[in-house]
Please model this.
Amino acid sequence: MRRRLAFIGCLAPDLLAEQDPAISQAANLYQRKVISILKPDLTISLLPLSMRPPTTLRDDSDTIYISNDIGLPLLLHRLWRAFADTVTAIIALVRSRANVAAIYNIDKQNVIVLCALLLMPRRRTILIAADNIGTGVGWWHRLSGFLAGRCHAAVVLNSNVRCNRRQMTSPGLIRFAEIHVRNVCIGRKVLLSGSLGRTTGLDLALEAFADMPDFELLICGRPFRCSDDEIRTKVAKSSSKHGNICYLGLVSNVEHARIRNCCDVALSLRNPSESEHDFNFPSKIIEYLADSMIVISTLRYRDIPDYLLVHSPFDASSLTGMIRRIHAMPHNEVLQHRYKVASFLRRQATLESFRRKFDTLAHG
Model:
């Protein structure tokens, strides 16, 4: 029987994702890449309940965007959409006659859709788990863990996530052509992007660069447990002496690529004492490595060999010293490191690698 694949996710059109800070651009891009390599027969997107998408939003040739907005007040809007969007998605799945379904994460918006999939006969459901599922306390963690275990298989983005007896790890998705090696010396521009907050290293980076006038820090992304105004106030205070820190806010994918291209060092500064980061999905790290950037990380990842990253303790003096040591590296050492990184990514982190793993699970 020919495989008919349905993908159920939570993604928005790129332009909408770039304008709405409630939407994770990393998650949006990841889902786009999954769709591009799996080529599902049906793609369903359950738009976030907090969104009121423009009335001009229409399904495109690849995706059905589900948002049954009838103009109710916010609370009633969310309740109505939780019900109506679920029914719409289930009807579309039944009509599609898909015999394999890939669902992105388990959340309170798609949980009933997942239950319906698990009850449908002769249908294999594969979970793509980008977040921690099945650990923690409370009814939701127990329920999501139970449902993840009932899926036919799972692809996890971090091997610390253990949610299914038949699972494979795929820590990143890079197109083969996106992997390249820069033949240039290390410059003085450093990038911090992604979720910006205290536990993700914002304060640490600001403290370090406040005393590094000969280096420039570029910051972009969305606030994490803080507001945009708070970030701007912190940046203004830290850069008041030297003017070497620039906060760009939320930027488009095209602009983010341009910023990466002008920086040779990237920071991934998760606080290792915070257990929430044990299940961190290092999509940005894979993206930086593919761009031939040197990545300084305060965490060690089971799925990324230590030799690909430069590790630093979570304190400003250590970070400052590490940045200066990287800048002083001989060019031949930098080039050798970049070739090792590119070789690993081509073997383990490409779209083709993900497809092979998914097909193995779907047919096994």
